[in-house]
Prior knowledge:
588 residues; binds adenosine-5'-diphosphate
Amino acid sequence: MAAITTEEQDRLEFDWDVTKRLVSYLTPNKTRIYWALAASVLSAAASVAGPPIVSWAIDQGVHTRNLTVVGAGVLAYLITQGLGALAFRVQIRLMAVTGQRAIQALRNDLFSHLQHMSLSFFAKYETGRLIARIINDVNTLREAITWAVVGTFRDLLSLIGVVITMILINLPLTLVSFGVLAILIFVANIWRIYARKTYLAVVETNAKVNAELAEAFNGVRVTQAFNRQAYNYDRFATTFNYNNRASNIRATLVASLFFPSIELIGGVATGLLIYVGGTLVLQQELSIFTLLTFVLYVDQFFQPIRMLAQRYNLFQSVMAAGYKLFHLLDRPIEISDRADAALLPQIEGHVTFDQVSFTYEEESDTVVLNDINLDVPAGTTVALVGHTGAGKSTLVKLLMRFYDVTEGAVKIDGVDVRVVTQNSLRSQMGVVLQETYLFSGTVMDNIRYGRLNASDAEVIDAAKAVGAHDFITALENGYHTEVREGGSLLSQGQKQLLAFARALLADPRILILDEATSNIDTQTEKVIQTALGRLLEGRTSFVIAHRLSTIVNSNLIVVMDHGKVIEQGSHQELLARNGAYAGMYTMA
Ligand code: ADP
């Protein structure tokens, strides 16, 4: 997995576009946000009102020994602070709901978009990275929405409130406090530079740990087979996890220098204030009320600044996360329906490849398929044979329109696959891959994946037809046995049979089948061959064939080599030609 790229790093600063897009996810919650803003005004007002009330109670009550004033002061203080706390709670609650709703919408959009991305996208983008985006980056945004959006507004508001009140009460003393602010800004600026650096390092090492984990667990079988656990552990522990720790500690170190410095500066400000203000009080040029209010305000003054600085990190991650997420959302769907795409009517299954050429990358000169011409009448079973890399899989991917041809056209019943909707096209095709992918759920659910509205009886009929019924009923809970994700509970042969049942249930006019290459015992092989016979019956089938029995029994054998069709015909015809196929057959 790539660490964050320079392109992504550059996006840590404010980005207007990202902000606008983020706001668009907030607009459905407009009313909630307005209320939260109103609540934040109230809670900021309460915090600004606190110090003068306290100072008044002490100055007018304690100082003059007037208990009624003290009581009134305490009551006023409790009421304002209570209201403030209530408003704060309302604000947090409203924004938490807003945050959750916004990221729910964003995740839905991402899921929907990514599901339509072409295979070439998934070939390039690691699953681990995608999941990290959808989980971590989206979470960063949620956190920011919940805590920072209105929170920052509240902090700014109370900061402004405090400053205005200070100026109104006593300008010279305000200027004394501001003198210290200059030092604060200076320190915060230096900190910002270091914080950015250490933050980037943390992001990068986190990404590496994620990538390493994903690879380690995805490839755990190979690791164990080759006994590489110790090596992998060493790599993880001494490189990735070590660097991650180091970068996190460095980030904490920078923070541990900054926040105490702010405290210290706050302390200096208080000291200075008491010294200057105290002198003025002694000279009877300043009231105790003013001095007290200012001393209490110093803390209220530094608190929002501390929060704003703390949010700087979050703000950076929001920009980075937002940029990456929207970048993902904006990736064009390569294979999309034309604006005028028609529905493909019920097909017969007559397939033609008309002078088809194909390259995977636009500018690449490696032509994967070169001038393919095939005419496959409806109901034909075509066996595709040839060396690895000859282009067999690519050919069927073009038929399913996972990619668009570079030249020529693929037609079904004379209709170019590019002019119809993908839905109407693929719903009439079935595919059985070499590795059967089973989803978590029951055996029944997995077969029904072929046709979601099939009844239980239809599912069982399909299983019976392909000879899967016996082994399914022998499972612990029969059709209701949970197959764990990936189907590790079942053998290779059993998974194939489930895939056959799934395809048979879907009953497509065109079937694409990539025969499993792995060794299956002769007994299962027989069952599978019979099942295959049932499955191929009466439909146009393209089989990437590895078994002689499948090949010999096909109506049409297409021999491919380096992206070309070098021979085609029936088994007998090709043997009679005594060419490449005859060579392969006699070798086998
Ligand atoms: P076969 O199925 O006959 O083994 P493929 O159709 O899988 O052959 O591959 C044909 C050629 O296309 C190979 O050279 C392979 O390296 C290349 N190829 C396959 N998939 C991709 C891809 N996603 N991107 C780029 N090249 C690919």
